[in-house]
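Summary of Year 1 activities. Much of the first year was spent building the evaluation harness for sequence design. The harness presents a backbone, in tokenized form, and records the residue chosen at every position. We chose the following record to illustrate the format because it has been used consistently in internal testing since the harness was completed.
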């Protein structure tokens, strides 16, 4: 069987998002499930995301658009 669920979870601090991702991965492994590596990522968002990325010399912020392919 194959199930697909999408979720967007927001955090104020990157460290919280990173810790959450690690914990979700561990939890899913208990049930022989895993996050899709091409569809799971941390995205900087918010009112000043574009300004912060420009200051760092990064491109404009990513979107929530899911890569095309097998699902």
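For this record, the design step produced the sequence shown next.
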């Amino acid at each position: 069987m194959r199930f697909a669920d999408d979720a967007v979870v927001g955090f104020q601090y990157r460290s919280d998002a990173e810790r959450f991702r690690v914990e979700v991965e561990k939890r899913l492994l208990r049930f022989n499930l895993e996050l899709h590596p091409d569809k799971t990522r941390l995205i900087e968002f918010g009112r000043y995301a574009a300004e912060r990325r420009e200051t760092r010399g990064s491109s404009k912020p990513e979107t929530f658009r899911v890569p095309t392919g097998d699902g």
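The chain has a mean pLDDT of 80. Quantitative recovery figures across the full test set are reported in Table 2.
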